C-alpha cells in the first residue's frame, strides 16, 4: 500500500508519458508540506523558492517510482539531496575562484601597475560571469583551469562522463567569451 499518495497519473502508465504533469501534480498536492520540508532542512529564506523549483526539476528528471511506499519520505530525501548538491557545488566554486584569485596575485607581480589593474579587472569580470553560469558549466571550467586535476580526475570528481564534461566546458567557455565581448564593448563605448 502506498502511504500518502494514491497512484498519480492515469491508467496504463500515462504518468510515465507526462513527467512534467506528474511532477506538477506532486507539487500541487504536497506543496505546503514540501515548503515546510525545505525550511526544515535549513534552506536560506531567500533561496526557498529556488529550492522548490529545483525539486520540480528533480522530479521531472527522476520521477518517483510507481511503487514508492511513502511519497513524503521520498520528497524529503530529494529535497535533502538537492540541498547537499547545491552546497557542495557552491563550496567548490568558491574554492576554485579563491585559487584563481591567489594564482593571479602571485604570478603577475613584476608587471606595470596599470597592466596589473587591467588583469585584476578582467579576473573580476571572469569570476562574475562564472558565478552566473549554470552549476555544471562553472564546475567544468573550475576543474579544467584551476583545480590542478586532469580531465579524467575532473570527470570522476563531478561524477560525469568525458563527453558530458567536454560539453559543459565548451558551453561555459562560449558563454564566458560572449559575456566578455559584451562587457568589453560596454567599456570601449565609454571612451
Unreliable residue runs: 1-15
How helical, in percent, are the residues?
A: over 70%
Tell me, what's the shape? elongated
Mean pLDDT: 79
Q: Give the biggest sheet.
A: none
CATH structural architecture of the largest domain: Orthogonal Bundle
Give the H and E element order. HHHHHHHH
Strand proportion, as a percent range, falls in under 5%
The CATH topology of the largest domain is what?
A: Rna Polymerase Sigma Factor, Chain: A
What oligomeric arrangement do these chains adopt? single chain
Counted by DSSP, the helix tally is 8
Task: Indicate the structural class.
Answer: mainly alpha
* The level-1 CATH class of the largest domain: Mainly Alpha
How large is the radius of gyration?
Answer: 22 Å
Distance from first to last alpha carbon: 71 Å
Could you say how many structural domains there are in total?
A: 2
Give me the count of strands: 0
Question: What would you say about this model in short?
Answer:
By secondary structure, the chain is an all-alpha fold. It is built from eight helices and no strands. It has two domains: 1-107, Rna Polymerase Sigma Factor, Chain: A (Orthogonal Bundle); 112-190, Orthogonal Bundle (Arc Repressor Mutant, subunit A), CATH 1.10.10.10.
Written description of the protein model:
It is a single chain. With 191 residues, the protein is mainly alpha-helical. The protein folds into two domains: 1-107, Rna Polymerase Sigma Factor, Chain: A, CATH 1.10.1740; 112-190, Winged helix-like DNA-binding domain superfamily/Winged helix DNA-binding domain (Arc Repressor Mutant, subunit A), CATH 1.10.10.10. Helix content is 76%, strand content 0%. The chain contains eight helices and no strands. Helix 3 crosses helix 4, helix 4 runs antiparallel to helix 5 (113-132) and helix 6 crosses helix 8. The protein starts with 13 loop residues before the first helix and ends with a helix.
